[in-house]
Amino acid sequence: MYFCDDISIEFTRQPGLGAPVWRGRAGSGAQLRSFADSARRSGARIAAIWGADRRQQGEGFRLHCVFGVEAGHLWLSLDLPADAPSFPDLADIFTAANRMQRAMRDMVGIAIEGGDQRPWLRHGGWPADWYPLRHDAGAPPESPNQPTDYEFVKVGGEGAHEIPVGPIHAGIIEPGHFRFSVVGERVLRLEQRLGYQHKGVEKLFIGADVARGATLVGRISGDSTCAYAWAYADAVESACGVEPPPRALALRALMLERERVANHLGDLGALGNDAAFAFGLTQFFALKEKWVRVNQALFGHRFLMDRIVPGGVASDIDADGLAAIVEQCATIGVELAKLRNLYDEHSGLQDRFATTGIIDSELARELSLSGMAARATGMLLDGRAHRQGYTPPPPYAALGVRPATDERGDVAARVAVRFDEINESLRLLRQIAVSLPAGAIRVELAPVPGGSGLGVVEGWRGEVVVGVEFDGEGRLARVHPHDPSWQAWLALEHAVLRDIVPDFPLINKSFNLSYSGVDL
Amino acid sequence: MIPLLRHIFRTGILTEPTQDVEAGAERELDRLQGEILHVLGRALTIREVDAGSCNGCELEVHALNNPYYNLEGRGIKFVASPRHADMLLVSGPVTKNMENALLRAYECTPDPKLVVAIGDCGCTGGVFGESYASCGRVSNVIPVDVVVPGCPPTPLDLLRGILTAVARQK
User: Fold this and answer.
1) Count of domains for chain A
2) Which of A88, A122, A390, B129 could form a disulfide with A106 if both were Cys (CB 3.0 to 4.6 A apart)?
C-alpha cells in the first residue's frame, strides 16, 4: 500500500488486533523528508519519533517516525550509518517534531541536520557527548551534576520582562519549568523547559524481559497506566503473532474507560477549584474516591496498575463485580448530571471558563494534537471511534463509540468534552458489562527474536504510542513510549497567549498534561 | 445558590470515622493527631515535592484532600513554599535533573524539619533504581525521617506516615 502517490515507499499492514498500523522503510533522509512533507500537506500528524542503536545486530542506527493519518498510523523507519548518524530536521514540517528529535539526539546521539540544537532531556547531569541509549555507552563519566544554562527565546520591548516558574510548582504537581514573558499581566510568550522527570526509563527497557517491560511501561505516567499497558501489550502481541482472547480485550476496554472516567472526574473538580469554586473540588474528588475504591475492590488496585499484561489481562471479574459496575455507572451518572447543571449555571465559573485558553483546529492540526484537547477544537479524532477510512480495534469496533467534540477550543470546551466523555464511557462500561464474552482472559506468549510491533491506544489525554523491538535472544532491544502530552504541551504554550498570567493555572489544568510521560 | 446549598446538604459529611478507615487504627490515628498539636502546638504544613515520580503517588496525595480523608480537618495543610513548611513529602526516585531543586527546597525549609519519602521509588528507588539519570531513593539526596512504601501508597498509608514522622520528632 502506498500512502503518498509521488513517493515510492511501500507500506504493509502490521499483524495483530491492535489499532491499524502500516510499516514502511525510507531509503534516505531526503526521502523521509519528502514523505513527511507530503504527508503533512495531506493532513497527517507526527505521532512519535525515536531512535535505536542497532550496531550490535551488525547494523548502524535506526530512526523511527510514526505518522497519524486517516486510516490509522504509518510507522516509517530509516537506517542510518554506524558512523556519524544524522537525519534532516523535520521541525519545519511538523512543529511537534522539534522536541522529539532533540530528545532522540540527547538519548541516542543521532544528530539533527540544522534546526534547533538546544538539549532537551540532558540538563547537565551527564556530558553532552555521552549517549545513554548506545549499547557501548558504559557508565556515565564522572561529572558534577551542574545544570546547564538554557537559552530561552527572549522577548524584547519596553516593559517586557520574564517570570520564571518551577521546576517545583506551587501545587501538588510534577516538576517542570515555565518561562513567561509578560508585559504587565498579559502573557506575550510561554516557553517550557521540561526533562526534570527524566529517570532513564528507556535504558531500563533494554535487555529486560517482557514482564519487566510491562511493569516499567505501567509507570511511564501513573495516571495513564492502563493506556500504556495496553499499547505495550498490542505492540508485544503483534511482534509475537499472538491474539488475546475476546474477554481480555473487553476487560482492557473496561479498565481503560474506568481510567478515563477517574481522570476526568478529578480534573473537573480541580478545574472548579482553580476558578475559586472549592465546592467542585470536594464534590468531584468524592466521586473519584468512590470510583477508585471500586477499582480496588474488583481488581485489587485503585488505579489498575499491572492489570493489563501482554497476552491478556491479569484479573478477571465475576457476575457480582459486573453488577457493581453497572450500578455504579448509574449512580455516578445521576450525580454527574446534577453537578454539570451546577457548573453550567454558575455564572462566576462560566465567566472564567468561557473564551479562556483558546486554541483552534488549525493550530491543533499544525501541532499534531490528538485526544481530548483536539476534540475540544472540533476535530473528530478518536482512536476508539469509526471515521471515514478507519475502523477502530476490537472491542471498540463493535461498541460504536460516539466521540465528544466542541468547537469553541477554550477551557469551557475542554470541560464540556470531559463531561461528555464521562457520559459516553459510562455507557460503554454498562455495555461491556452486560455483553462480556466468556472464556479465557490470557494466552501464553513467547517472544519472537528480532520481532517488533507498534501499539496505539486512545488514552484519556490522547494517543498513547508504544514501539517495541526484540533482540536476537527474545529480550527487549528497544521500547519507546510516547505520550500525547508531547504535542499538547505546545498547544498549552499557544493557549495562554490571549490571556493573563492568573489564568494560566486554569488553562494548564484544563489540559492537565503529563511531565513524566514526556520526560521518560 | 439554593440548588448549590441543597446539593451540599444532600451530600452530607463523607469524612470517615477512623474506625471505618481501618479497624484498630482509630486509637493510633487519634493519638498521633493529638501529638501533632502537642509536638507542634499548631497545625502541620507540608510541601509536597515530586522529585521524579510517575505521578501515581501524586494521585494519592491529592486523594488525601478529598472529603473521605479530610486532611485539612486534621490540621494538616499543603503549602506552596518550602519556606512555609514543617515537612517535605517527597516522591521519587530523585532524578539527576531534580537533585539540585530538591536540595534547594530542603535548604529552604526551616528547622526543625521533617522529611517523609513516599512510594516504593522514594523509599528504595523502586522499579527505576539508580542510574545515569536517577539518584534512586530520596535518602540518597536528603535526610529522611519516615518512609511510606507502596506503588502508590494508599491515602491511609500516607496519613499514617505523616503522623508517625510527627510523633517521632517528639
Assistant:
1) 2
2) A122
